[in-house]
Specification:
The complex is a heterodimer. Chain A is mainly β. Chain A is built from no helices and eleven strands. In chain A, strand 5 and strand 6 (54-57) form a beta hairpin. Chain B is mostly beta strands. Chain B contains no helices and twelve strands. In chain B, a hairpin with a 5-residue loop joins strand 5 and strand 6. Classes of the chains: A mainly beta, B mainly beta. Chains A and B meet through strand 4, strand 5, strand 9 and strand 10 of A and strand 6 of B.
Chain lengths: 114, 113
């Protein structure tokens, strides 16, 4: 079974802190994704990566950056956390080419910025 | 543009009631369609999918049929259980490449005994 893990289930940070969210997948998938989930807005794509060191902006990249130094690991970075970045963050992965475009999700990290 | 519209929740039902959650999409080409489910405190899990017109996806008693003529993929279950309480997301694949998915806003389902 595909397994996508995220480093923390819950995080509390202060405004202005630098925040790292880590995601690891164990199925040798080429593509990895970071979403944020907010009530009434569904999932919105922040960034994705289709290969090591490669990244593409999603729909809401402002205030975020990403890093993919190894195939299995995709990090989301909040350079200076703000209260409007309080959200649930979900990581996903799939192979390239994907089988029916299905994505496999991690359990999520609920981030609170005070 | 590409989008997914789901019926707003919450949907509240009694156990053994019939469930329908409406989903319509706007997309170019012929996308694959998905229903994902998120149980409390967890990430998203694929519930079912359909990859071409008139396909029916099914899993755990849930069904959805890919209707190209109405651009719809409504989720149904004949008899819901308390354990079905979750948030349900409809999604379609993005024909612009990079294997992206376009998600709806999600519909929360609460099933009471």
């Amino acid at each position: 079974d595909v397994k996508v893990t995220q480093s923390s289930r819950y995080l509390v940070k202060r405004t202005g802190e630098k925040v790292f969210l880590e995601c690891v997948q164990d199925m040798d998938h080429e593509n990895m994704f970071w979403y944020r989930q907010d009530p009434g807005l569904g999932l919105r794509l922040i960034y994705f990566s289709y290969d090591v060191k490669m990244k593409e902006k999603g729909d809401i990249p402002e205030g975020y950056s990403v890093s993919r130094e190894k195939k299995e690991r995709f990090s989301l970075i909040l350079e200076s956390a703000s209260t409007n970045q309080t959200s649930m963050y979900l990581c996903a992965s799939n192979q390239n080419p994907p089988r029916d475009n299905e994505q496999f999700f991690g359990p999520g990290t609920r981030l609170t910025v005070l | 543009g590409n989008s997914v519209t789901q019926m707003e929740g919450p949907v509240t039902l009694s156990e053994e009631a019939f469930l329908t959650i409406n989903c319509t999409y706007t997309a170019t080409g012929y996308p694959s369609l998905f229903w994902y489910v998120q149980y409390p405190g967890e990430g998203l899990q694929l519930l079912l999918k359909a990859t071409k017109a008139d396909d029916k996806g099914s899993n755990k008693g849930f069904e959805a049929t890919y209707r190209k003529e109405t651009t719809s993929f409504h989720l149904e279950k004949g008899s819901v259980q308390v354990s079905d309480s979750a948030v349900y997301f409809c999604a379609h694949s993005f024909s612009g490449g990079y294997n992206k998915l376009i998600f709806g806003a999600g519909t929360r389902l609460a099933v009471h005994p």
